[in-house]
Amino acid sequence: MFRVARAGGRLLVLDFGRPDNRLWRSLYFAYLRLIVPVYGKLFCGNWSAYAYILDSLKAYPAQRGVERAMREMGCREVRVINFFGGAMSINFGVKQGRS
Q: How far is CA 10 from the centre of its chain?
């Protein structure tokens, strides 16, 4: 995204997040581990259809890692907008340079 954005272009990343609050994070991870596979079974007929999300999220740098990467790439106005206590997030940044 950064490579193809024009100077002054806005970068937005909407993704699962990792809540900063330990209690909320543990509850959220329990939900992903115990409830989301049930939804996979009910809606897709497959327990593991969405079970990958928790493992994927544990390995993913989430909103803080994306924020750090955007700053390292030289984005300005970098910010994180958390939803649901950080379970979902939007990372925002503007590519440096002339518009």
A: 17
Sign, CA dihedral 19-21-27-29, equals positive
pTM to 2 decimals? 0.79
Number of other residues whose CB lies within 10 A of the CB of residue 54:
19
Neighbour tally for 68: CB within 10 Å? 13
92, 76 contact by CB (below 8 A): no
The mean predicted confidence, pLDDT, of the chain is 91
Q: What's the first-to-final CA gap in the chain, in angstroms?
A: 16
Whether residue 70 contacts residue 81, with contact meaning beta carbons closer than 8 Å, is answered with no
pLDDT > 80? residue 90: yes
- Average pLDDT of span 61-86: 95
CA distances from 12 to 36, 48, 49 (A): 26, 29, 27
